[in-house]
């Protein structure tokens, strides 16, 4: 900061308080305030003071000149998130020119990572940091936020097209999965009661949304659906999106076994150029065993074998055997059967004790059905039910028949051998865990996509899209800050080279991180949330100097960064 005295031809010189900075590698300056009304002796004193070295100015301030800190605003976390967003060019993807709506959307994205909350809460929390000052957002009402959401909804397709152009390539892969979140409003047409969702409260409707990512897990698109929508019903929408909206004539679609059913695979054949990778459902494995196409002897020398079957013409089937998975499934089955037996023993004692008024056959059947269905092992029990009588026994044959397939799974694909190896087919399918990470982040404490209170379908869709864009920033933050986070820095290399069948293991460096809780250069390790909290202690302080109280002169000063904070900004290249 310096005092600039600008001469005028016929008028007194203009005295400006200015600040120099660098922009795109060039020197630039901005005017902080006009202090022409100050007496010249005060101007010269201020100019002399600002011309001194930093240490000298600090000594003068504390030795002879008193000042007051009017307000301190957290700044470091805003600088990290907003700076990364602008560095990636996401603001220009949202809209090429700066406008009020774009600034509000950018602020909503940044706040999603710093202080996730309702839209009303967000308009309050961005005033408690330097975000509102950085984006010049003052007096933003809730109606203006809703208008910005509607504006974002209208630009959604264009933004997705730009993201897809950056991250999806001709002949490459696109990962896709569907999830849902609770809805607590009353008017959104997307909110419906869903069946078969684990942990879903029956009294609360939900909204489904499908996320598409690139092979590295960067999200490029999201679509909303009614909560009762099944996974397979969204497949053709995504195929059309890939070809018609994104203009990709050749792409490999990767989805889980619940998404790409046999009927949906047949439907995908209507889209030439759309390949696919998925897994085979367990009950389909039995058909391969009975036809002789799948045998345990395939895994004598290797845990992976490529097979073919007339039951699946034109497909490549990669059979995998994981002994650890085999042991886990066997142990789980035994635990579920044992738990069901305890329930049946209770019912048997209840039936035997009812001597005066025996239970009828129908009553016993209803109770027994609930018992054997509780842990989903009804097929492993044979029940004998009569009026006032009940007995049961295990079906050892069905248990053994199911146990024969423990640890075996099959990945199926339309891709030819010359394009992708059997090992890479399995590796690419397992990349779906990165889409699951998107959902964990959006539905967890990081971004808080739920609960959803918005009323209009456009606003709900824009809200979910907003959360996806926030995760896009989070993904890049995690990549850049991996050395100071509890992240496995060798994970991406391991994904391409490790045994595709064996369980994933953390690298030696990741194990060392967990033990020492320190980075290679001795810095403390953080989660992303605690790292942003630490950066929030770096504040922008508005100071008023008593020497110039009459002139109402204030100066902004930042808290001195700690070595850790300096390291973070170095990693982010900010």
What is the 3D form?
elongated
The CATH class assignment of the domain at 153-292 and 415-471 is: Alpha Beta
Mean pLDDT: 88
Question: Distance between termini?
Answer: 20 Å
C-alpha Rg, in Å? 31 Å
The main pleated sheet reads as: 8 strands, mixed
| Poorly predicted residue ranges | none
Q: What's the CATH architecture name of the domain at 153-292 and 415-471?
A: 2-Layer Sandwich
Contiguous helical run count = 21
CATH fold type of the domain at 153-292 and 415-471: Nucleotidyltransferase, domain 5
Q: Order of strands in the sheet with the most strands?
A: 7-6-5-8-9-14-11-10
**Strand count:** 16
- % residues in beta strands: 15-25%
Helix vs. strand class: alpha+beta
Percent helix, as a range, is 40-55%
Topology:
Layout lengths: L1 E5 L7 E10 L2 E9 L5 H11 L3 H10 L3 E8 L1 H13 L1 H5 L5 H15 L4 H7 L5 H4 L7 H26 L5 E10 L23 E8 L5 E8 L8 H11 L5 E4 L7 H7 L5 E6 L2 H10 L12 E4 L8 E6 L1 H31 L7 H13 L7 E6 L2 E6 L1 H8 L4 E6 L8 H9 L2 H11 L13 H24 L10 H7 L10 H9 L11 H8 L3 E7 L8 E5 L4 H9 L3
Parallel strand pairs: 5-8, 8-9
Antiparallel strand pairs: 1-2, 2-3, 4-15, 5-6, 6-7, 9-14, 10-11, 11-14, 12-13, 15-16
Helix pairs in contact: 3-5, 3-17, 3-20, 5-8, 5-17, 8-17, 12-13
